[in-house]
Amino acid sequence: VATLIQNAKHDESEDGKRQIIRISNKVIHHKVFAVGGETAMTLLQVCGWQLGLNDDGDTVLKFIGGHQYKWLDAAVAQLEYESMKG
């Protein structure tokens, strides 16, 4: 979940690819939802992800966090610091 948030916050791609998560993505399902279940979904929504559909009709979470989530900036900075420590 932390990696998804970090990727979305730092996504500078034209299409915002890292700001959209397909719920049916096998890796995401296995590493996030199978482990964290409903709690992982709730955490992502609290951190600025919104449940919806993409153009293909797939269920997705789209990052809408932006800067209204000031506390999220601090949390991401802490996660980055922790990951650099090893």
How much of the sequence lies in strands comes to: 15-25%
Q: Give unreliable regions as ranges.
A: none
Give the beta-strand count.
3
Intertermini distance: 17 Å
How many helix segments? 3
- Which structural class do you get from the secondary structure elements? alpha+beta
Give me the side-by-side strand order of the main sheet: 1-3-2
Overall form: globular
Give the topology string: H per helix, E per strand.
HEHEEH
* Radius of gyration over all CA atoms, rounded: 13 Å
Indicate the mean pLDDT. Answer: 82
The level of helicity is: 40-55%
Largest sheet: 3 strands, antiparallel
Question: Could you walk me through the main structural features you see in this protein, from its secondary elements to its overall organization?
Answer:
This protein has 86 residues and is of the alpha+beta class. It has helices at residues 2-9, 26-46, 70-85; strands at residues 20-22, 49-53, 59-63. Strand 2 (49-53) and strand 3 form a beta hairpin. Helix 1 crosses helix 3.
